[in-house]
Amino acid sequence: MRLTLDIDLDTLGEDTAAEAGRTLRYWAGAVAQMDLRAAVEFPLTDSTSKTIGHLAVSQGEDDPTGAVKDVLARYLHRLHETLLWKIDGLGERDARWPMTPTGTNLLGLLKHVASVESEYFGFVFDRPFPLTLPWSSEDAPDNADMWAWAEETIGSVRDLATVVWAHADATIDELDLDATGHVPWWGEDPVTFAHVLVHVVVELARHLGQADIVRELTDGSCGLMPAISNLPEHDADWWSDYVEKLKQVAEAAG
C-alpha cells in the first residue's frame, strides 16, 4: 500500500506556504479517519475550493478485481458512517420530523437504507438476512420503511443498520464480483455482484444527499463527512452574504 499526497504548488497563489500548510493540517486529521487498507482517492482543494492536487491510497495490481471491490466497499462504509453522523445529536422528534412535502426525514432514510441493503446483500444472493422486517413485506403499507414507527427509536434503527451492515460486509467478503444473483424487481435476468454493489453505493449516495439537506434544514449542521467538511472555511457572516448574493442573482434572473 502507498499513501500519496500530490500538491501543485503553482496553483496556490502568492501565499504558497500558508495554503500548503492549511491543506496538510486539514488532511492530517482526515487521514486519521481513513482505512488505509483500501485504495481510495480524494481531490485536494485550497481555501477557495479550487482543486490543487490529490491524496491517494493505492495498492499493487496483482489482483485488480479485488482492488475494485475494496474501493467499492470502502465507499459504502464511508457512506454508512456519514449517514449515522447525520443523525448524531438529534432527539427523537427532530430525527423523525418530515422536512419535505413527501415526508423525507432522517431516521426514515436510515431505516430505508438498512432495509434495502438487507435485501440486496441478502436473498438476492441466497444469503437471506436473519431478521424479519415487517415494513418490507409485500403487504406492508406504502412507504412503511421510510419512517420510524411508534415502537421504534433512534437506537433501535441504528442497531438494525449495524446488524444489516455486518451482514452486508460478510456478503462482500464472501462473493467475487462476477458472482450472480437474482433481483426479482429488476426482471428475470441474473445480475452480477459487481452490478448490485455499484447500484447500492449509488442509491445510498443519493439518499445521503437527501440527508445532507434535511439535516442542514433541521439545525444548520452540514458537511461531507465527520473529518472533511468539503466546504469553504468561513464564518456565519460570510455565508449570510453569500446566500444574499445568490438571492440577488436569482431575483435578477427571474
Average pLDDT reading = 89
Q: Uncertain runs with pLDDT below 50, 5 residues or more? A: none
Summed up, the helix count is 7
Helix-strand string: EHEEHHHHEEHH
Strand content: 5-15%
Structural class: mainly alpha
Question: What is Rg?
Answer: 21 Å
**How far is the first residue's CA from the last residue's CA?**
53 Å
Binned, the helix content reads 40-55%
The counted number of beta strands is 5
**Widest beta sheet: strand line-up:** 1-3-2
Protein model, in words:
- With 254 residues, this protein is mainly alpha-helical.
- 49% of the residues lie in helices and 9% in strands.
- It is built from seven helices and five strands, in the order βαββααααββαα.
- The protein has a three-stranded antiparallel β-sheet with strand order 1-3-2. The chain has a two-stranded antiparallel ribbon with strand order 4-5.
- Strand 2 (40-45) and strand 3 (51-58) form a beta hairpin.
- Helix 4 runs parallel beside helix 5.
- The longest helix is centred in the C-terminal third of the chain and has 27 residues, at 193-219.
- It starts with a strand and ends with a helix.
- The mean pLDDT is 89.
Topology:
Elements: E1 2-7, H1 16-31, E2 40-45, E3 51-58, H2 64-85, H3 92-96, H4 106-120, H5 154-174, E4 180-181, E5 191-192, H6 193-219, H7 236-253
Antiparallel strand pairs: 1-3, 2-3, 4-5
Helix pairs in contact: 2-5, 2-6, 4-5, 4-6
